[in-house]
Amino acid sequence: MIQIKTGLGIDSHRFSEEVTEGRPFMLGGVQWDEPLSLSGNSDADVVLHALTDAISSITGNTIIGQKADELCNQGIVDSSEYLKLALADLNSFQITHVAIALECLRPKIDPKVQKMRASIAQLLNIGVDCIGITATSGEGLTEFGRGEGIFCKVIVTVVKDSND
Q1: What is the third-level CATH fold of 2-161?
Q2: Residue 112 pLDDT > 90, yes or no?
Q3: Element (H or E) spanning 120, and its range?
């Protein structure tokens, strides 16, 4: 029998008034050459945070807000490290698809979509074709669409063949 589960994760961060020295702007595991900084204890990668939360919603083990905060206190601010903790909890489930939707006015997402897909595929050990990324400004109806921050929603689908 095949088990299929779906997880949903969301995250958002406001832009900081000042660019944080020594902390690159990260989105989807990719460093961007943008004069931007998101507020947060970690690298504030909203994509990896939402992805970690989506996996946590499948496993029931909270990473962001519990284990991630402990790692931040130890100086570990790379969001891919939080994602690795969530992935370890999947056990024999395999990720088959990831859908990522961003809402922001800045930066322009399209130029880096392929790099983000490749980065996330490598982190998840799945094919690039299993990852979709979309972005919108939402016509400026929210603070994210007005350029005040970035909002991300992620849906993850996993499967497990119980006959294994």
Answers
A1: 60s Ribosomal Protein L30; Chain: A; (3.30.1330)
A2: yes
A3: helix 113-124
How many CA atoms lie less than 13 Å away from 11 in the CB half-sphere? 25
pLDDT of 85 over the 70 cut? yes
DSSP assignment letter at 70: H
DSSP state of 85: H
* Displacement of CA 50 from its chain's centroid (Å): 4
CA distances from 132 to 13, 22, 97, 136, 163 (A): 21, 30, 8, 14, 29
Half-sphere exposure (Cβ direction) of 106: Cα atoms closer than 13 Å: 12
Whether the per-residue pLDDT at 164 is higher than 60: the answer is no
> How would DSSP label each residue in 7-57?
EEEEEEEEBPSSPPTT--EEETTEEE-SS--B-SSS---HHHHHHHHHHHH
